[in-house]
Amino acid sequence: MEIIFKNVDYIYQPNTPFQRQALFDINLVIPHGKITSIIGNTGSGKSTLIKQINGLLKPTNGEISLGDKVINNNINSHDLLEIRRNVGMLFQFSERQLFSSTVAEDIKFGGVNYHLSPDELEHNFTDIINLLEIDNSLLNKSPLELSGGQMRKIALAGVLIYHPKVLILDEPTIGLDGKTHLDFMNVFKQLQEKWGLTIIMVTHQMEDVVNYSDNVVFMNDGKVLVQGDVKNVFKNNQQLMIEKNMMTDVMEFSLNLYKKQKDCHLFENLPLTIDELIKKIKLGLNIDE
């Protein structure tokens, strides 16, 4: 599902002494079936932006199109419900979304809430526990008995049970150890490739942006600074990325190395990944590839 923002503004507490504008004239296309990362420093408007997509916040001005549905300030409750049926959202520390007495009940809750038939609910349930490799021995346990990574996986299953067309992820791997982090990122990539999901991910992990995303939206002070293909954005806006500290570890390492070797032009275009770094080093040292 393609998502199009047209001239979207958002103002918190309008017409009060506490009025604050969080989004300014957002024009943006989030392509169908791709992973799009939303990046920017704290307070840049990332969370406000994603909450417009499922109508948690309605734009003060402008509109967001999702297929044949439009979110604006006057959207009716019926259309809003249908949009939320197609747009799943996993919040930061999503394990806090769990509330049922058993894991199975928690996973199925979203499907029941959106009135899936019993057969569809059971079919989706089986698909999802297999996809996420949730052990059957966990299903009758309380979610509170599980580890943090397991709980977050259950929260994800509860969103996927009703098969949304769009999946919004707000810092989905925050607080996870390295292996669990990679496991989740690989699941998201699998969902994109096998289910054709449009995935929108807010993250401060630039490695995840470069290694898993197709597109990136870079926000600052409630505005979109730059958007487009990940590698093009990072390659063509390196001074901006450096100024705003939106660098991968490889970029930061390369920049420091470049500063120490002022007469060397090896890192004029900072590599984004380990593979690119190795290639540049080989070329700089005249090593045969």
TrEMBL record:
Where does this protein reside within or beyond the cell? Answer: Cell membrane
Q: Name one Pfam family in it.
A: ABC_tran
The UniProt entry's coiled-coil ranges are none
| Assigned keywords, A-Z | ATP-binding, Cell membrane, Membrane, Nucleotide-binding, Translocase, Transport
Q: Which GO terms describe its cellular component?
A: ATP-binding cassette (ABC) transporter complex
The similarity annotation says: Belongs to the ABC transporter superfamily.
**Record's protein name:** Energy-coupling factor transporter ATPase
Source species = Candidatus Gallilactobacillus intestinavium
Q: What is the lineage of its organism?
A: Bacteria, Bacillati, Bacillota, Bacilli, Lactobacillales
